[in-house]
Amino acid sequence: MIRVELPTHLRALAHVNSEIKLEVEGTVTQRSVLDALEARYPMLCGTIRDHVTKQRRPFLRFFACEEDLSHESPDAPLPEKVASGAEPFIIIGAVAGG
Amino acid sequence: MSRVRVLVGTRKGAFILESDGKREKWDVSGPLFTGWEIYHIKGSLADPNRIYASQNSSWSGQVIQRSSDGGKTWETPGGGPTMGPQGFPVGESNKFVYDTSAETGKPLTTHQFYDGTQHPWEFKRVWHLEPSLTDPDTVYAGVEDAALFRSTDGAHSWQELPGLRGHGTGPKWQPGAGGMCLHTVILDPKDPGRIYIAISAAGAFRTDDGGKTWKPINKGLRSSFIPDPDAEVGHCVHHVAMSPSRPGVLFMQKHWDVMRSDDAGDSWHEVSGNLPTDFGFVIDVHAHEPDTIYVVPIKSDAEHFVPEGKLRVYRSRTGGNEWEALTKGLPQSNCYVNVLRDAMAVDSLDSCGVYFGTSGGQVYVSADAGDSWSPIVRDLPAVLSVEVQTLS
User: Fold this and answer.
1) Domains of chain B
2) Given A12, A45, A94, which is nearest B79 (Cβ)?
3) Taking a C-beta distance cutoff of 8 angstroms, is the pair B256, B270 a contact?
4) A42·B83 Cβ contact <8 A
5) Which residues of A touch B12 (CB under 8 A)?
6) Which of A59, B116, B188, B259 has the most crowded Cβ, counting Cβ within 10 A?
7) For B322-366, what is each residue's pLDDT tens digit?
8) CB–CB contact B90 A38 (8 Å)
9) Which own/partner contact pairs does B53-59 have at CB distance under 8 Å and 24+ positions apart?
10) Of A52, A59, A57, A48, whose CA–CA distance to A4 is shortest?
11) Which chain A residues touch B91 with a CB distance below 8 Å?
C-alpha cells in the first residue's frame, strides 16, 4: 500500500481530507504511483503532470524520506520505505509569495 | 418575480451574488474553489442551472468545473466520483490539446514571441467560457496561447477549432503583456454559423461557417505600437460587445481607442469622442437599447487605474462619440482600481441592471441603467470576471 500526500488545493479537488492510500502494481516508481493516483482520482489528470508529455508541472515537487526526488527519472524505483508504505510520497507546491 | 444571479470570478475563488428584481438586498455565497484563480464563470442561456467555471493555478494548471443546479454543487466533468463504468475518458475535462493533425487543419506550431522569434504554442489557461445559446452541453473556451476549443458533451472533452490558428496569420500573432489570450467569444443569436472572437495581441476574427474558416476583421483599427499601424493583424483588442438584438453592430475597447463596426466587423471607425482617456478594458451594451454602451476609461497602459482617482463609468446613448460620466454612488476621490475585460455585465430586466467588478474587490450594481450605483460587496479578492443571469 503506497501512501500519497497531496497539497491542500489538490485534496480539495479530489474530495479527500487526508493522506491517500493506493495499491500500485509492479515496481513502485513516480510514474506508477501517479498512474494509480490519476486512475482513482481522474480529476487530478493534468494538475500534477502534463496530460500529453507527462512532465511534472514546474511548481510542484516530489519529496520522500527527506529527499527531493523531483528530478529523478519517473521510472526510477522509489525508496523502499515508500514502496513498503512506511513513508509517504509527498506532492507539494513550491513556496511562492513573500 | 424575476431574480438575478451574479457570477464573480476572482484571483482566489468564485462568488455567487443573488437578489430579487429590485437588486437592493443580496445573498452572497462563496468562496468556491478557494485559492484558485477563476478567470471566468458563466451560465447557460439554454439552461440557467448549467454553469461553467474556469479554475486555474500556477501550481496545478487548468481545471474546468460544471454545475447543473445553479451553482449549489459542482463537479469536474468526467473526473468526479459520479463517473459510471461506461463513463467518459478519464480526466478529459481538463485536457486542452492543440490540433496538429494534417486532416483537420493546417498544422501550426509557432507564433511570434516577445523577442520577435517564432515560439511554439503552449497551453496555459482558459480565459473565457461561452456556453451555446441553445444547447447546455455545448460550450466554447477561449484559451491562452490563443485558440478556440469547443465541447459538445458538457465539458467532458474538448476539441480545438483549428481553422482559426491555421487560417494563415497565426505566425504574426504575439502575446500582449497579459499573455497571448483569446478572451472574447461572441455567438450570433440570429446566425448559428457566425462567431466573433478577439485575441491580445492579434485582433478580432470572424467565422461564418461555425468555426471551420476564419478571417481577420480589423480594417479601420490603428495601433501605433506595431510597425504597420494599419496591419491586418497584431492589434491589441481588449474586448468586444454586441447587442443580441442587433448582431451586426459591434463595439470594441481596443488597447487605446473605442471602436464601432456596423458591418459585422468588416470595417471599424473610432467612437472615443469626449472620453477622458480611450484606454480601457471593458465594454458592454444595454440589454434593450442597442445604442447605449458602457466603458470604464483607464488612465493609460502604464497606469492601470482610473484617472484622477475617480471611478467613473461612461455611458453613450448614441452608439459612441458622445459620452456622459456616471458617478452617483461610485468613489470620486482616492480610488485607483482597474476593471478587467470580462468584469462587466448587464441583466435583461425591464430596467436594465449593469454590474462590474474591480481589482480592489468591489462589485457594483446599478439597477437603473447606470444612473446610480451601489456596492454589492466591497472586499473580495481582485475581480477577474463578472457575469449575470436573469432568472424568472
Assistant:
1) 3-83+90-391 (2.130.10.10)
2) A45
3) no
4) yes
5) none
6) B259
7) 999 999 999 999 999 999 999 999 999 999 999 999 999 999 999
8) yes
9) B53/B9, B53/B14, B53/B129, B54/B9, B54/B125, B54/B126, B54/B127, B54/B128, B54/B129, B54/B141, B56/B125, B56/B126, B57/A9, B58/A59, B58/A96, B59/A7, B59/A9, B59/A57, B59/A59, B59/A60, B59/A93, B59/A94
10) A48
11) 38, 42-46, 51
**What is the CATH architecture assignment of A2-93?**
Roll (3.10)
Contacts 24+ apart (CB under 8 A), B47-54: B47/B136, B48/B5, B48/B389, B48/B391, B50/B131, B50/B136, B50/B137, B50/B154, B51/B7, B52/B129, B52/B131, B52/B139, B52/B155, B53/B9, B53/B14, B53/B129, B54/B9, B54/B125, B54/B126, B54/B127, B54/B128, B54/B129, B54/B141
Q: Which residues of A touch B (CB under 8 A)?
A: 7-10, 12-13, 15, 38-39, 41-48, 51-52, 57, 59-60, 93-94, 96
CA torsion sign for B363, B368, B373, B377 is negative
Taking CB atoms and an 8 Å limit, are B58 and A59 in contact across chains?
yes
One-letter amino acid for residue A1 of the chain: M
Question: What's the ipTM?
Answer: 0.87
**Which H or E element spans position A8?**
helix A8-14
pLDDT band, very low/low/confident/very high, at B106 (cuts 50, 70, 90): low
CA nearest to A12 within chain B: B33
B12 touches chain A (CB under 8 A): no
Which residues of chain B does A56 touch, with a Cβ-Cβ cutoff of 8 Å?
none
Burial of B171 (0-12, 13-18, 19+ CB in 10 A): middle
What is the pTM assigned to this prediction?
0.94
Q: Is the peptide bond before B302 cis (omega within 30 degrees of 0)?
A: no
Give contacts of B60 with chain A, Cβ < 8 Å: 7, 9-10, 13, 47-48, 57, 60, 93
Question: Which of A9, A45, A48 lies at the smallest CB-CB distance from B57?
Answer: A9
**pLDDT, tens digit, for every residue of B242-266?**
999 999 999 999 999 999 999 999 9
